[in-house]
Amino acid sequence: MNNWLEYFPENVLERGYSYHLHGFVRHLNYTSKYLSATVSGTEDYKVVITWDEKTNMTCDCLYAIEGKKCKHMAAVLFAYEERPIKKSNYSLSELSSLVSSASSSLVRELLTEILIEHPHFIERFKVKMPFHAINYSDKLTTIIHKYDHIIKKNKNRKTAKFIMEMRKFIQEAVESLIQQNAYLPAFELINEVIATLETFYWEPEDERTLLLIEDCYYLWKELLAEAPHAEKRQMFSWFVCQVDHTDASYSKRYSIKILKEDFREKEFSNQKKKIDKKLKKR
User: Fold this and answer.
1) Domain check: are 30 and 143 in the same one?
2) Which of 28, 46, 47, 82 is 20 to 30 Å from 197 at the Cα level?
3) Are 209 and 163 in contact (CB under 8 A)?
4) What is the pTM of this model?
5) 265 contacts: CB under 8 Å, gap ≥ 6
6) How many structural domains are present in the chain?
C-alpha cells in the first residue's frame, strides 16, 4: 500500500507513530490486500484496512466512527510498514552455502537492489554494521539543516514533519546502538537531540516537541536499565551537571525527573540528597 501517509493529518500521524513505537499494536495479520490488528488505548480497538482498487479503513473508536482517519489506523500502518522479516523456507546452512558461492560484487549488487525495492530492510541491515560505520551525529545534522529555515519561521506543518523524522531517527539509531552495546554513544546522541531542541524557539508546551522529549526520556530509562555500572556513573554525572549548571528547560526538567526515579544504588544517594536540598531552596 503506497502513499498512505497522505490520508492522515500530521497530528494523527504523530500519535499513531507514538502508539507503534510504544508497542500498542498487537495481533497484526495481513495478506496482499488485507490488514488487521488490535491497538491498545483506553480500550482495545480493532482496525481493518483493505486495498484493491479503493482503500478502505475501519476502526471501532469514536473518532473513526465519525468517518475520520484515526491514530489507531496510522499505528497499524506504521507497524505493517516496519514489520519483521518473514523466515525463509531455506535452512541457514543452505543460504550460507548459496551466498558463499557468489562473488562479492554479485552479493553487493543484489543487496543494493533488495534495499531499493524494500526500504524497510535498510535499518535491519545497518544494525548489523559496527556503530562507528554509521555517523549518527552527521545524520542528525543533515536532518536539522534540512528543516532549519522552516523551524525558525515556525511553520506548523513542516515543523511537524521535522519532529516526526527526528522521532523515527532517534528511536532507530538508539535501538541500533543498544544492540551493539554502544551505550555511551547512544546516550550522547539522545543528549544531542535534546540540545538541538533547546536551540529553537517552540511555543510553550508545544505538543509535538513534548512527544519527542518523551521519546528521549524513555530511551534514557532504557539505557540506564541496560548500561554497565561504569557507564551509568558517567550518565549520572551528566544529569547532575544539567541540574546544577544549566538553565535549559527540557534537559533540566527531565534530568530532575530521571534523578528522582533512577540511580537507586547506594553510591548515588548522597549526591541525590544534596541535589534535592538545592532544588528545595530555589
Assistant:
1) no
2) 82
3) yes
4) 0.54
5) 229
6) 2
Query: Of the residues 56, 81, 106, which one is the last residue of a structural domain?
Result: 81
Cell 507514538 belongs to residue: 18
For residues 56-67, give the mean pLDDT: 88
Nearest to 137 by CA among 170, 162, 164: 170
127: pLDDT strictly greater than 90: no
Measured at the CA of 280, the angle between CA 276 and CA 282, to 5 degrees, comes to: 120
Record the cell numbers describing residue 50, joined without a space.
483493505
- The whole-number pLDDT of residue 134 equals 62
For 243, residues 6+ apart whose C-beta sits below 8 A from its C-beta are 252, 255, 256, 259, 275, 278, 279
Within-domain flag for 45: yes
**Same domain? 144 vs 241:** yes
Which of the 8 DSSP states describes residue 44?
A: E
Gap between the Cα atoms of 115 and 104, Å rounded: 16
Dist CA 173 CA 133 (whole Å):
12
Range of the domain at 165: 129-281
Counting beta carbons within 10 angstroms of the beta carbon of residue 128, is it exposed (0 to 12), middle (13 to 18) or buried (19 or more)? exposed
Q: How many whole angstroms separate alpha carbon 12 and alpha carbon 89?
A: 38
Pair 80, 74: CB distance under 8 Å: no
